[in-house]
Amino acid sequence: MVWMLRLSKFVAPLLLAPLAACATASTPDEAPPPWRIAGPLQAIITADGTTDPAIRGFWKSRGYGRLLRIDEAGVTQFETGAACYRPASSGEALSAMDSVSYRYFRALPEGRSAIFQLLRGDTNVVFDRLEALPEECTETPATTPRAVADAFLDAFDRHYAFFDRRPPNHSKRAERVNSAIRPDMSDAQLWDALAGYMDGLSDSHTKLIGEVGGERRRVQDGQGTTLPRMRAAEGGETAWLVGLIDTTMKKLGETAHHTGNDRIVWGVIDGRVGYLQIFQMGGFTAREDFGSEAWATAEMAEFDRIMDEAFAAFAEAGVEGVIVDLSNNRGGWDKIAKAIPARFTDEAYVGFTTATRGSGLPPFPHVIEPASGPRFAGPVYLLTSDVTVSGGELATLALRQNPRVVHAGATTRGAFSTPLAKRLPNGWLLELSNEVFAAPDGRIFEETGIKPSTALEVYPDGAPVEGHWRAVEALAEMIASD
């Protein structure tokens, strides 16, 4: 049988501990990485609505350009760099990353440092305790064109991790901005100057969002070739997605399931091949409290419920292989990205690593632990395209470490980093890529994307719906011939 219903609860910890230790091994003269010696995860806000007294005070991040003031009432965030300021805000979040704040911490020995996390089990951001708020930190920052441009340029100079892969470098881009800045320029002119810095950056995780003259604006590059083509086609992106889902549901017949708040389609092809398409790493419920503990719990519970149902159905059908279709996956929560490969292994392993520019910390190993629910141990065929991005690429990286997985389709987008969201002094939002995700062997696929071992055209010009299902059928035939 290729099915694994439940791994002994004693096996995963035994596998995980030595594996994780090896991935961040330190010599006797080196300090262990913080995540190995930090205390248990605790909520910053306690049950009575006040902050945990142990974490109150002033904290400065290693990398990320953050300074936190934590008092009894809550957490106030300052942006730090060449200047230190609490940015202006209308109270409205301009993006998903702009809507979340630090909710958890793990104390480090002696209490002088701590790991902070936005979501439970999320990226480890190390902060060091300060005695007081630095004198230069202000809650009323200057919002002149020069001040806004300086904060924008300083953020890129300190934190952006990929100028080597997306030239020209910072200094050449900054020259364009500095030559355009004038004291009497309008907001529209300032916006155009900053947008000019990002011209040709080809990074979908780097964007500028703000309001100019009462109009919401957004600058974002690096969308690949398929998405811009479909958005420009008759009916746009929506008609294309509806066509993809309708075709897939018809092909799967009575086994078809469209679930998870429209984010997941699964079924069985010809009674012998399991099919699982995931459009997004999250959003499986209708909850609107993104980033909260209740949101995270509900999202994981719904994802696990769907996976349990799908994999149990695959087992009952006795499928010979499973197709994991991430060809239209737009990314999302990293925890979901790691939960997908967890359904295809009975041993813990490192799926990928993360290092953050300016943190001074070693790469953090993301360990894929076997799922507690039904799992599949037979052939797996992974389908990707240039639409596959962010969390979809993290799942791809982790799945590729499994020797039973064959990666097919087209090269992924090449944008991995969780966006670092930084408010500029005037309230505009800058998001940029500061985290370097890599395969366990150190290879980095930022900008280049991950190239499949088996090339298939997934969304061909002229037949973007029919071509997708032809690619799926090609994988089903490969499974039959194994």
TrEMBL record:
Supply the EC number(s).
3.4.21.102
- Please provide an example of a Pfam family that matches this protein in its UniProt record: Peptidase_S41
Kindly list the GO molecular function terms attached to this UniProt entry: serine-type endopeptidase activity
Q: Which keywords does UniProt give here?
A: Hydrolase, Protease, Signal
Which GO terms are recorded in the biological process aspect for this UniProt protein? proteolysis
Question: Does Metal-binding appear among the keywords?
Answer: no
Q: Give a yes or no for keyword Protease in this entry.
A: yes
Q: Which InterPro entries match?
A: ClpP/crotonase-like_dom_sf, Tail-specific_protease
What positions does the domain Tail specific protease occupy?
242-457
Domain of life where this protein originates? Bacteria
Q: Which SUPFAM superfamilies match?
A: ClpP/crotonase (SSF52096)
Question: Which enzyme type, at the first EC level?
Answer: hydrolase
Where is the signal peptide, in residue numbers?
A: 1-23
Under the heading PANTHER family, the entry gives: INTERPHOTORECEPTOR RETINOID-BINDING PROTEIN, RETINOL-BINDING PROTEIN 3
Any idea what this protein is called?
Answer: Carboxyl-terminal processing protease
Protein's organism: Qipengyuania citrea
